[in-house]
Every structure is written in C-alpha cells, then in structure tokens.
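Journal club prep — side note

Before the paper discussion, L.F. wants everyone to see what a predicted structure for a comparable chain looks like in token form. Sequence:
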Amino acid sequence: MNEPVFIIPLWADLTAVGLGGVQGALFASGFRGERRLDLLGVAIIGVVVGMGGGLIRDLLLNVTPTTLQSNWYLLTATGAALFGMLLAGVFQRLNALIVGLDAVVIGMFGAFGTSKALALGLPLVPAVFVGVCAAVGGGILRDMIMGLPVAIMHVGSLYAVAAAAGCLVLAASHELGLDIVAASAIGIAVTAVIRLLAVIFDISLPEQRALYRRKVAVETSAIPIAKP
C-alpha cells in the first residue's frame, strides 16, 4: 500500500522559511563585541531558523526532507536573513509587528508538522509532538550553534506551550472530522493568540526555584555547620 501523500503549499512553506530567516537575522544583529557575526554567520543563522523546523519534522517522520527538494528553500532563507540584517534597524522599530509575525510562524511550522504527521498515519499524541518539535526546532538549533542556553528550557513566554496548544487543537479538530486545511488554520490562530497574550501580559510557566530551594533546604539541614 502506498503512503498517503501530503503536500504543503510551496508559497506557505516559503513564507514560513522566509520569516524565520528574518527572525534569525534580527537575533544575530543583537550581538555586540566578540560575538558579532559576519554575513556568513548571519546567513547560517537564517538558514537554521528558517529551515530547521522542517528538517527536524521530516527526520522524525522518516521522509525525504522537503526543504532539500527545491532550490527555493535555501535561497529564501539566506536572502531573508541578509535582508533582515541590512534592515535590522527598521525591523527593531517595528517590534510589535515582529512579535506578531513570530507568533504566526510558530503556528505555521507547528501546523505543517502536525498535519503531515496525521497524513502519514501517526496517532494524535505523536503527531502533536512532531508539530511542536517543528515549531521550536529552528530556535533550538540556533541556540545550540551559538553556544547559548536553549531558550525553551528557561522561563519565557510560553513558546512551546503555545505551539503545543495549537497543534493539539488542530489534531483534535481533524479527528472530529474537520478538513485538515480548516483545522490547520484554527491551530495556527490558537498558537498565535496564546503566544501574543503571553508576550503582552508576560505570562510564563512557574519556575522550579521553589522546588529547588525546598530540596536544598532538606539536603543541607542534615549537614553540621561548624561554629567559630
């Protein structure tokens, strides 16, 4: 039996890749001093952010990476990164627009990943997992290449949680019989709204600090302290 074929519209995929490339350039432009990046460095960050999610998605699904089947993906990611670097000052003044685009891009990568996983026959939970990995994959690879702490592992504005919520809504809607395109649109909207609300109202998951302090208190209570 042949596997079901799932084709992400090229224009939609390239839009997400291009926006990811611009975001990578804006991220790179924020470094000063010894961490400054040249044109090649910015291009690499743009490619990683723009294409990383799709590559991780296809590797998890054990299919040929779509981003390597056309010249346009690498060209779009690189061009968008260089464009973003040249106009970094302009983009920085449009911070609200960039935050909004970032939220939409997260939703798009998550929706593409979840939809493709569902089309290939994965159950709901693994499909959502693939979608979340696709949504946050570019950022994880970026941080690893730059030698930085992985952002989603630290207190932040519900980056992965927003992606997970959108992917779950998409998968559940599809399971209930909704067309995959309509379900994807809803999933993207849910992810974007949660991400924007988290940024606007500075919402994040609880820190582990309290648990850590309690653990330290228990461990150190048994340690004798020498008094002078």
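L.F.'s comment for the group: The chain is about 70% helix and 0% strand. Keep this in mind when we get to the figures.
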